[in-house]
User: Fold these one by one.
Assistant:
Number 1:
Amino acid sequence: MSKKIFVLLFILVSASVSVYAFTKTASSEPVLVQSGEEKHWCPVCGMNLKMFYKTNHTSKTEDAKHRQYCSIRCLVVDMKKQNIPTESVEVVDAKTEKLIPAHKAFYVVGSKVKGTMSKVSKLAFASKEDALEFIKKHQGKLVDFTTVLKLAQDSLVFDTSMIAKKKKKKIYPMGKKIFYKMCDTHINLAEYKEINELKSALKNDNLCRPLKEKQLQATALYLWEVKRLGDLGDITGKISVQKDEKCPVCGMFTYKYPKWVAQIFYEDAGEQKHYSFDGVKDLMKFYFNPKEWSNDKVTTKKDISKILVTDYYSQVAIDATKAYYVVGSDIYGPMGDELIPFIDEEDAKTFYMDHKGTKVIKFKDITPEEIYKLDE
Amino acid sequence: MMIELKNLTKIYELNTNDKVIALKDISLSINEGEIVVLKGSSGSGKSTILSLIAALSKPTSGEVIVDAKQISKLPDSFASVYRRDNIGFVFQKYNLLTNLSVEDNILLPLIPLNPSQLEVDAKIDEVMKKFEIIHKKDTLVRNLSGGEQQRVAIARANVNDPKIIIADEPTANLDEKLSLNFIEILRELKSLNKTIIIATHDPLFFGLDFIDREIQIDNGKIA
Amino acid sequence: MSSKINIYLIKYAINSILRQKYKTFFIVTIFTFLVFLLTSIFFITNSIRYELDSTVDALPQIIVQKIKAGRHYDIDVDKVDEILELSGVSDAVARVWGYYYFENAGVNFSVVGIDKYENQYKNSLQSIVNKFDFEESSDEPFMVVGQGVKEVMNSSYFKEYFNFIKPDGTLKKVNIRGVFDSDTQLESNDMIVMSNETIREIFDIDETKATDIVVKVANPQEVSMVASKIKLMLPDSRIITTQDLKISYQNIFDYKSGVFLALFIVSLFTFFIIIYDKSSGLSSEEKREIGILKAIGWRVDDVLKEKFYESFIISFFSYMLGSTLTFAYVYIFQAPVLREIFVGYSQLKTTFELPFIFDLQTLFLVFFISVPVYVAATIIPSWKVATLEADEVIR
Ligand SMILES: Nc1ncnc2c1ncn2[C@@H]1O[C@H](COP(=O)(O)OP(=O)(O)O)[C@@H](O)[C@H]1O
Ligand SMILES: [Mg+2]
């Protein structure tokens, strides 16, 4: 009796394990259609094709070059850049792991399997039965290629911003560290047309010491998306203030409020100088009427060379003129109601929702009336 | 220095219905440089008179005037200064700090003056020599004989070079030889032109040539 | 009157202290002991509180654990990506760590895995990564261990390497690359740091799983908002914020410091009994001395000044002696016995050292509740006697 229960239990457990056992990695050698050593990676995002083989798509460009993507997301990105005939697109059958024409495939979207570079996974099957069987196990909806393509195009912005956050917070810093520790820093990034070429070079031309795939990917992403563009996306760090710097508007010591610090820069006899403020509100009061608060070096807005504010979420210095500001939230600065700055519009909107803001405005839309209303 | 007692009365109140009248309306004046012996039996009031002159206690009524100053009405700390500057008191029981050395005992009256080291050494040496105790200067007082202790008390009384020397029963604890010795010291002090008042009932003091006056006290009155 | 210090008066005071050998010895002993006890109590509590704060402050702001059937379970590494998407999160790290029971010595090591290229969630780990090049130059796995671990391993003749027993019973040889000693005792004594790969092998943890996830929030004001969002996103998780931890540590601490408070009150009580006893009267010997001094011309102030010097010297000396002993006791000998009151705390952290804090505030506090009180308790009865008629006192 107890033996039977045991067996039953065992079956149950192993069945439940198999639910989670679905992996997108190729079970045997994958079909790679691109040429050269770079064929192992997606030309758009650089990810390892074998690891995400079951979501792989391929295409043939107008000039008859074969391309292979980690997922439909990268295919969509590539389609925006160059002409790719939709009929040329092929997809890996998640069951048989063979390439099949995409327009003939049965797609399952929104199953419990995690998507590749997207919130929603999109897996293809040559046979409808296989697709339905998969849906039984992992849920999801049966659709055709046209629908899937539309879906991928529509969610591209969202998916990209989601990945961007992860990259910025985690992958770029990691890649940078690895690059400076493990690689030849004299690398000429202009030599590579696409990220998979770069990756291949890093791996095969001894540009880096041996790296694991994850580390290689981080390094390649850092080089391709940050360093190649001049390290622009790099975090600039916090605004620094000296202990004796007082806010010219309210007279408080600004170093006590590092979360709120903001600065206005100006030139004085070729030297860069600045005023520090304990919040955007006081900074704006100054900005609208410098004469009232400053020495005679700053009399109009024209004398101001640069304005920095502190991003609420990341706490780093950002360009005030490019920031988004949330008004009317339940978060107070040292001087009460504040304009809360964000470099990222998404962040500003999230904050606006979380903290009951009344509106999100851009720098140029801030008016003196708005500022003085905050003090009421 | 002129000492004048005017209608002095001293009553000790033991409790509300038991009091001792130690002195009754005593008037007396002692001239500068005079050496006076107060005699009388035990309990007659001699010590009380000395105590009033030294401002160690206050009269119930009457006045003590020294050098034209009302001593009997001085506030406590002025009384201390008065004693320090004018009175050398040789107590009946000597009132030495027996755990201190001879030298340290003699130093005591000088301490509140915050004197310099030189001054102190000179003064102490001088009195220790004069009263022949210098050979014991580092000995603890409790290890001295009665006569030696008295000499320390006398030296201490003289270290500030006071105008008035008071001695209460100075020979009560001494044998005859030492008593005679003390009388010699008195003679010497007299020659230094100090005003000296001695309370005693010791007959050795009676009829001495250098004593100016002997005053008999009986039951708190001058007889 | 000259305002310069009266050397003779001070000499007299010292002389008088030395003369009363028995009494002086008694007072110095009691006084020193009480000062010692009081300052020790304060020093230990302060040091532990400091330790506590720095430990908690060094902890990650948010820890995310997966809970299954009420127990802590391994969490999916993927969740890191989801957490990173939240606004306000500046970093999230999947941690792999655990306790390894070393049967031979009967001790637990805490084993912590790190990825050298990740941002470390703790400064102490970062400095370990910086100091010991976490390069896997050869295939030989290695680790960096705390001083305590090193000693335990040494005594079991593991000098160069250590053999971990894996869950399947096989051995895993890990070389000892170095010993770290961090400035603050951040649970480092029993800690072993190794690469994530090695620790996964030793504890048999899948690459898709981690022990927990720590989350860094750049703006501390957002911690609770982020925590509640993670909770919404991962309903099967337990979210621990630094704030929660601080409160639970604090609870243990407050309970234990209750014992200290009791000790504190007892010692104060003893002190005031002595004071009471003293101020209730002087011995006839002391009275006579004051009487004599007055009779030969000392003023009340002279007497009180002398008494002040006397009591100040003796109490200040005892105070200095007591606090010096405390410094030695607490910081050199690490407060044996008294420290045991904090067994609760030491259970939380097997070994810890009391960090040196020059606690001026405590020193002042103890000074002001002891020295002036003692001085006053000496002067007041002397003043009472000194203002009596000298005649009455010496007769
Ligand atoms: N402090 C005192 N309290 C009560 N009675 C005292 C006190 N001092 C002295 N007397 C009393 O005053 C009287 C005179 O004493 P005292 O002056 O000592 O006499 P003498 O010195 O002549 O022996 C005695 O009856 C004595 O008992
Ligand atoms: Mg008498």
Number 2:
Amino acid sequence: MSWVVNFFSSSVGKKVIMSLTGLFLCLFLAVHMSGNFLLLQDDGGLAFNEYTKFMTTFPLVKVVSYITYAFIIFHIVDGIMLALNNRKARPVKYAVSKPSNSWQSRNMALLGIVIFFFLVVHLKSFWFELKFGHVPMDANQNKDLYSIVYEAFSQWWYVALYLVSLIALGLHLSHGFQSAFQSLGLNHSKYTPFIKGFGLLFSIVIPLGFAIQPIFVFLKATGRI
Amino acid sequence: MKLTLKIWRQRNSNDKGKLETYPVDGITTDMSFLEMIDVLNQQLIKDKKDPVAFDHDCREGICGMCSMVINGRPHGPWEGTTTCQLHMRAFKDGDTVVIEPWRAASFPVIKDLVVDRTSFDKIIQAGGYISVNTGNAVDANSLPIDKTNAEDAFDAAACIGCGACVAACPNSSGMLFLGAKVSHLALLPQGEPEREKRVLNMMKTHDDEGFGGCTNTGACEAECPKGISLTNIARLNREYMRAAIGSEEEVR
Ligand code: SF4
Ligand code: FES
């Protein structure tokens, strides 16, 4: 099995891990974002709580969520290893540099760190509360996560934190999505323009979708809509 | 025209090195960048100072020796041009020009602007060859080769091994060079016998020599004087996966 280890520790192998986990997490983002639109339903959160129950108890979804946790960890650990290795490859920096590549492509690690800290706050507020905290019950005897979300998003600074993190996510995706295909060797004159275009669209739509939810709840909680 | 040059001076590989400022005068627009440094060196020699060491050989854009980062860009401001082919009309009277060597752990500075690119030679040695039978020369065009493949292989073969891709890459990765070298043989029937072994060995040498990994920023492609494209890196990734996962070859 040493060939597997050798493959994944080569610079291409590390990128394969980065791209496969990254693309899986893109899928996760799409699902997570669509589901959360139930927050916009005007039923005091009943549908959202029902959905939460399904997502946290249905066995198949549970398996997928464990895979997601694992992939997030792989993505982070592999990213750290890549970043450290790449740093080591240039011990002396240039006095003057005029980069011809995009800012986000050079700062994927920085953007990743911002997203990581967001993730910690996000998981603490909702995931941790739901699992270990005290959550009231709603009218259908489901855990009322909606009330916790509602409370969190009624604070402007909490919403602001989300919006900043979503910008970081958008930038991360704008490079990461198409980059994942290139890392997997999928660069083709017929498909690459589509992949690039879709990646750009994806990096706008996903953060935008995620941004609508806290903004909507905030406006509702503060009586503006 | 008059210029202010800020040039990296470093006595040897153990010296720390620093940027030194030199004014030069009497530069004409039709001089090449290297001729401009020649002018400076004449002046330094006359003043009994150590002239600036820099690599150069062909001075016609084919040997890949003239490595220097000019105002933050490998081979200077012109696209698809080596330093020796860069002309002084790219600059204005009174400009300040900062000249630095390639910066990479795998390209240690020998002196001033001269770096040691043995690491590239090692990559070539690890797989940049093919098996041919000796004996009578075979008929030209006896091997049918698809036109697109022939063209892509030729484009990849245009790499002159200058190392600007490494110098431009934020990770000092040698993937564009490696991608070009692997592609040019992988696309042709002559490269077939060593196809898997080649990419595995060359990749291993690339990593062992301390180059960084590719993060697809595209800086290499933008700075490559020979227009080597990123598709070669994608092909390299494919070739590597194909060899590592899909062949009997050992992955070291
Ligand atoms: S790929 Fe381009 S920049 Fe890199 S060594 Fe070859 S010619 Fe130079
Ligand atoms: S000196 Fe040969 S390429 Fe510039």
Number 3:
Amino acid sequence: MNVIRLSILMIVVPGAVCLTACRKDTSGPTATADPPVSFEVDPAERNALKTTPHDPVVGFDHVQSKPFFVTRRTAKITQFPCAVCHETPLTAPAPAEVVNRGMHVDIDLHHADSATMSCATCHNYADLSGLRLLGGDIIPFDASYRLCSQCHFEQAQDWAGGAHGKRLAGWQGKRVVMNCADCHNPHAPALGSHWPVQKPEIP
Amino acid sequence: MNTEKTRFTFGDLMVRCGFATASEKTHTARQGDTQGGCGNPRPQTGASCSCSGGGACNGGGNPPGGSSLTAKPVTRRQAIGAMVGGALATTAFAASSLSPKTSDEEREKTLLKWQEYFKDNFRLMSDREKAETIQRLERLAYLDHATDVKIKATGAKPGVLFGYAFNISKCKGYRSCVDACIKENNLDRKSGMQYIRIFEMENGKMDIESGNAEYDHPVPAEGHFYMGTQCFQCANPPCVEVCPVGATWQEPDGIVVVDYDWCIGCRYCEAACPYWARRFNWSEPEVPAGEVNANQHYLGNRQRKKGVVEKCTFCVQRTREGRLPACAEACPTGARVFGNLLDPDSEIRYVLEHKQVFRLKEELGCEPKFWYFMD
Ligand code: SF4
Ligand code: SF4
């Protein structure tokens, strides 16, 4: 096809520039030039995966049939395990004003209104080193995504599929995603406002 | 890939070196064809070209000013080999007549630049030529900028077609991606070049022309949403179509790249791109030595020069190694989804199959591989 076009150009338009005809056909990607090479994840990225502890995600087979993994939370929680202070179980639900004192001065509850949730909605008062699902099951902090997904099921579905949240390391290979609480503060989950970086100079 | 050598006549070489006069410039074809280009001098008589598309045709139309040398075609490399010594001697002589202290480094630089000047379009290079030019470029980076860089020429992998999705309900306008892109891709700090634009848009308005990319206040702003643009690696790229010298093309994994050493800086592509994705180097790009990203790709973030066009390549130096583009990695909100469109389990495929997606100026038919979506 190219050759025919080229010849016509040469006959009909002697003054035409050869370059147009000599250029590649741009109708699609060029032919593959390199022999197949197996994908090697960059060593730095591989290390990132190695040094970031993670566990298999459970309960999302209906969204993502391929196994994927989620980062562990416990290594990042500063005052863990909770039983270091909380030697005995809590008994009464603590109102937000109480929580905001003492060791938890950094906790400012801006999640749902108090009629919907209190500390006990998520925390296991019998043993504070675990979290409690609405049905009563106790789960570790590392699986906190299961807790969030009880209400935020749409986000959780997108998270499992890949439309929400962030994946670590590369776009291929072992899929390790960040836990909900890696980005969202569970006590005040909305992302904040701040100054942007790098103002553009548009000519 | 067509590995057959391009034939260049001595006359061609003279023209490219600037030694031939205008009347002799009957043929200045620069090839950019991997699929069987024609290296013919354009016949003066209007006779049809007999090129069979094999890429090795020499044709019959020798330049009128051509000597008997033109009767025996030489490959470009052979010709360079023959010429460069003499040329270099002349240059070195000229330089030394100006400054008596022409250092060895300057002589080496001159030689390397000469050899660089005569190299082929990237798509026509053999593996050996690629290795040689990379070696020269790495050395030149050291001589010119005192930086040790590593330039790769990693090719596209079979079964991979890159795609990108951007969540307009997640983006908060922080521009962390812009920052990461500048650093990753060695963008010119002097002119403040940026590949990515984040447009601040009023809620309810979808006309990106009404957006403001120069916002300068804490974000997200009340009543606004944010929409990022960059090169969309169109499947039907008008920028490639208009390039007169084949300096820009689409790779098999869908990335549209520029051969910075083949680009003549005509900026046709910049005008043809409906997404304002291409940037032109009006001056010599500057990156402080300490900030140069040494992990480079020939078709990606290697040091550019004055007078050439560049653009986002989905971080070809990273993504062809399985990593995420710098912007996707840097985004703190997870608004950026990147992956292989041919992998049914990929995140990008999930987005395309489960979310409401749209593309910018879809009616133009450029088929960008960049989708916007909402939660
Ligand atoms: S966005 Fe512009 S520069 Fe990028 S491929 Fe499409 S037309 Fe070309
Ligand atoms: S400016 Fe664009 S169109 Fe002109 S030569 Fe360079 S890549 Fe091709």
Number 4:
Amino acid sequence: MAIIVIVFLGYNFFIYTQKPPIEVQKMSEIAIRGEKIYQDNNCTACHQFYGLGGYLGPDLTNVISEEGKGAMYVKAFLNSGIKSMPQFNFSEEEKEALVAFLEAVDETGHYPIYEATHNYGWVSIKYKK
Amino acid sequence: MNQKIPFLFLLLGLSALHLGAFFGILITLQYIYPEFLKEALAFNRLREFHVSTLIGWLILTATGGIYYYISKVLNVPLYSKKIMSIQFSILLVCSFAIYYSFLVGKMGGREYLTYHPIISLPILIAWILFAINYFKTLVGKIQNWPVYLWMWGTGIVFMIYHFSESHLWLIPSIRENFIRDITVQWKSYGSFVGSWNMLIYGTAIFLMSKIKNENTVGRGKVAFFFYFLGLSNLMFGWAHHTYFIPTQPWIRIVAYAMSMSEWIIFLSIIISWKKSLNKEAKIKGNFAYKFLLATDFWVFVNLFIALLISIPYINLFTHGTHITVAHSMGTTIGINTTILLASAMFIAYKENAGIIEANTKIIKLGYWLFNGALAGFLTMLMLGGVARSKWTFLSDKTTSFGEMQSSIQPLIVAFLFFGVVLFIGLLFVAIPLIKVYFNKLKK
């Protein structure tokens, strides 16, 4: 029992301090403000990052870098009240912050994973450079 | 009054079950009619009524059961009835606070913990009180703890830990790094679900030992082997939720290895089934036992699904689709809910067998409606997941998300139908239970 607890503690320490295998910038202040807006409005009820979140809307991990999408595209959606998406009334500043947050997320990786190699059920994923 | 607290936990839990299922019906309606309640309570708030209320069902009912079993079945006097009452009162007030936070839209915006984070503080205090009461009551009072006492204790301690862990995002060094943040977030969720599973599976083993009247159940090397296997999965198995987040590969490899160890559990179920088949006839007609048989079946189905989707190459296609929902609904409804209903039945039968016996027919009907509807319900989710995965990986980029969503509408309508039947089935089962508990409160 003691052994398993010690292993657990060490393991937790690594997780809490792990550096992702890619260099990403710390989230900027404005991106963090964007994340707060994302949370305050519980966008996660419908949207996902890395496939984690709700199912009513599309995954947003790469909505900034995806072909044909991007900052303008995102802004157009925010106050649109399209389909089941609530009619938000974000100010220009709030929209900027949300975009900054989505940009920061986009930099961290790819999702869905279209390019992956696999063997024995294991999948190696492609990291962003 | 203090004698009645376990029944209050159970009643509040059962109410949460029905209310939560009802919210589930409402949010499914929002899937079908995007305008439904959109002005008053859009999906981003209504969904959380559903999620939080049903987590309430699991936790309140498990807690009420544990208090009841300790004091009324194991006959160990509680360290403090007052602590139990305070714990109940805190959770009751928090339930209202959580609803209030959704109503006014003060959201926390994290999966599961979507209410305003400040409410987490009293909830944490309630868990710490539970821990104090539990260990002060039992340590030294019972020799050689059977495995279910270990499981309950472990569940409480780890709940406190992982519940706190899920708030680490409030610390800047975690929050500034998105990958670290999302990893810690889903680590904590995987593990606090594992913690409530400890409470609930412990209850299942407890019930088995009492129904079969065999004290050997829950003792011995094998029982403890599975306890440790479950514990290590609780600690390290969470990362199959995060295979595709660009974390360090070793984290994901550990998770893969850990998840696969559960095949041992899977095989052991098949073996023990074969052994127990001939014994069953004796216990016929006992509803608590009947629900545990349903549990057995759903464990088998869900574990099989879980094991498959824990293989990264399969997870690649199922992650983020409704197949994940099928997994979480399958386990919370098929496994957790059947165990807790067994527990609620066991207690009701012990308190007032007359009412349960007088309602045999309706409970039986409810039982079959519940299980039958659940099968349909999960099938629709699996099919929906396949459709979404096909859209992600096989479609050319011309089909929009909205078109894909419309194409699975018929599945969602069928899903709603099964959901409504499930709700009715639950009502049939619960009405006699509620009668018994209310009688206890009046006295």
